[in-house]
C-alpha cells in the first residue's frame, strides 16, 4: 500500500519501501483513496482552527455517512459491509488528518452501532442503524465511569426493574459524542449482571455535559453523563448483551481501528519532518544532509513501516475471523506507543517551530495521549499480553 498510490502527484509525501499494495484489493484501495480525499478536502483546511476553538463540526457527520464510513464494517441496515482492511485504511486516513475524526467514526460505528448490530433486536436494528449509517443520527457508548475506566466490572451505574420499567441511575465519564448523540448505549449493573440499554438522549433524567478543560482531542466531544432515575421500557434492553463480554467485544472493534489510525497520525508527522529537513538550510546545507537528522528519520520510518505491517497482519487475521484479544492488544500497545515516539522525534526535528500550529505535530502529539489512554491504557494491554504469555492473571 504505497502512499504514493493514493496521492496527487503534486503532494510531497513519504514513499514506502515495503510494497504492501500487493495484499490489497482494488476495493480496499478505493476506500483508502476516498477517505484520504475527504480528509484533505473537508477536515484539514479547518482542523487547526477547530482545535484551537474546541469546535466540533457537526455538519461533517452526515458527510461521513454519505461517504459510507459510519458502521462501514457492518452488513445490512444501510451499512457498507466493507472488509476489515478497508475499515482500517479509512481509520488510517482520517487520523492522518486528526485523531478526533477517526474517534468519531469509531465511537459511532465500532462502539454504538456495533453494540446494536451484535446484540440488538431486529426492531432495534431497524430503528437505529440506517439513520446512524447515514449520519442522520448520532450514537454514543457509555461504559467508563468517573471512578476509573480500567475496571468496568466495578461500575456503579445500576438498573433496577420496577413495575415493568427499567430505572437507570449513575454517572459515566469521557463519553464521546454524548452531548450531540440521539441514542446512548449505556452499560449498567442489574440483578442479572451487566446489561446494555438503548437510551434516547431526550429521555428525562439523561444529561451530558461536555468536558471543557481538555488539552487533547479539542476538535471532538467527550462528556460527563448523568443518569438520574432514567425510566425505560422493556424494549430498551439489548437482548443479546449479558455480562462484560458484550461491551468488551465492542471495545475490541474500536481498538482494531486504533491500530491503523495511530499510524495515520505517525505518517502525518513523518511527512512533515521529511519535508522540513529538505527545505530548511542550517550550517550552509539542508538540514536533511546532516547525519543525525537522517538517523532520526530512519528510526521514525522503520517504526512506521513496522506498525503498518502489524496493522495489515492484524487486519488479515480479522478478515479470517481468527483475531484474538491478545493480538489486538499487541497492535494497540505497539502502534500507539510508536506513533507517540515518531511525533516526538518530528517535534524535535522541527525545533521551535514544532510547537506552533503552523505544523500539525503538537496537535497529533496531544491527541495521541488520549488515544494511548482510551480503549485500554498501555498497562492494561501489557497485562493482557503478559497473561497470555504466562497463563497467570495479574489483574
Automatic annotation (TrEMBL):
The keyword Oxidoreductase applies. This is glutaryl-CoA dehydrogenase (ETF). The lineage of its organism: Bacteria, Bacillati, Actinomycetota, Actinomycetes, Micrococcales. Residues 25-136 form the Acyl-CoA dehydrogenase/oxidase N-terminal domain. Its EC number is 1.3.8.6. Its cofactor is FAD. It comes from the Bacteria. It catalyses: glutaryl-CoA + oxidized [electron-transfer flavoprotein] + 2 H(+) = (2E)-butenoyl-CoA + reduced [electron-transfer flavoprotein] + CO2. Keywords: FAD, Flavoprotein, Oxidoreductase, Transit peptide. Pfam families: Acyl-CoA_dh_1 (PF00441), Acyl-CoA_dh_M (PF02770), Acyl-CoA_dh_N (PF02771).
Amino acid at each position: 500500500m504505497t502512499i504514493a498510490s493514493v496521492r496527487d502527484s503534486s503532494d510531497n509525501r513519504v514513499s514506502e519501501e515495503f510494497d504492501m499494495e500487493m495484499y490489497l484489493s482494488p476495493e480496499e484501495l478505493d476506500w483508502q483513496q476516498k477517505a484520504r480525499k475527504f480528509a484533505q478536502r473537508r477536515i484539514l483546511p479547518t482542523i487547526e482552527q477547530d482545535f484551537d476553538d474546541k469546535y466540533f463540526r457537526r455538519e461533517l457527520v452526515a458527510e461521513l455517512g454519505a461517504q459510507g464510513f459510519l458502521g462501514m464494517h457492518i452488513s445490512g441496515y444501510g451499512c457498507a459491509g466493507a472488509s476489515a482492511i478497508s475499515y482500517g485504511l479509512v481509520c488510517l486516513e482520517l487520523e492522518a488528518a486528526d485523531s478526533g475524526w477517526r474517534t468519531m467514526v469509531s465511537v459511532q460505528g465500532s462502539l454504538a452501532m456495533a453494540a446494536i448490530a451484535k446484540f440488538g433486536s431486529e426492531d432495534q436494528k431497524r430503528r437505529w442503524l440506517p439513520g446512524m449509517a447515514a449520519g442522520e443520527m448520532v450514537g454514543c457508548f457509555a461504559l467508563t465511569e468517573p471512578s476509573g475506566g480500567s475496571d468496568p466490572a466495578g461500575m456503579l451505574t445500576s438498573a433496577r426493574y420496577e413495575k415493568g420499567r427499567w430505572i437507570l441511575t449513575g454517572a459515566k465519564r469521557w463519553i464521546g459524542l454524548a452531548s450531540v448523540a440521539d441514542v446512548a448505549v449505556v452499560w449498567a449493573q442489574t440483578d442479572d449482571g451487566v446489561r446494555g440499554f438503548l437510551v434516547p438522549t431526550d429521555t428525562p433524567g439523561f444529561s451530558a455535559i461536555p468536558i471543557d478543560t481538555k488539552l487533547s482531542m479539542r476538535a471532538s466531544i467527550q462528556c460527563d453523563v448523568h443518569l438520574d432515575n432514567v425510566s425505560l421500557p422493556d424494549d430498551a434492553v439489548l437482548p443479546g448483551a449479558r455480562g462484560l463480554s458484550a461491551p468488551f467485544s465492542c471495545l475490541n472493534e474500536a481498538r482494531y481501528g486504533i491500530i491503523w489510525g495511530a499510524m495515520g497520525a505517525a505518517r502525518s508527522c513523518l511527512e512533515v519532518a521529511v519535508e522540513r529537513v529538505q527545505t530548511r538550510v542550517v550550517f550552509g546545507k539542508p538540514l536533511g544532509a546532516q547525519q543525525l537528522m537522517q538517523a532520526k528519520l530512519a528510526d521514525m520510518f522503520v517504526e512506521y513501516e513496522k506498525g503498518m505491517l502489524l496493522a495489515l497482519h492484524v487486519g488479515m487475521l480479522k478478515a479470517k475471523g481468527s483475531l484474538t484479544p491478545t493480538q489486538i492488544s499487541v497492535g494497540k500497545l505497539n502502534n500507539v506507543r510508536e506513533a507517540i515516539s515518531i511525533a516526538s522525534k518530528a517535534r524535535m526535528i522541527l525545533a521551535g517551530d514544532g510547537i506552533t500550529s503552523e505544523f500539525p505535530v503538537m496537535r497529533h502529539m496531544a491527541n495521541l495521549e488520549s488515544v494511548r489512554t482510551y480503549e485500554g491504557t498501555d498497562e492494561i494491554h501489557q497485562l493482557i499480553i503478559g497473561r497470555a504469555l504466562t497463563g497467570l492473571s495479574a489483574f
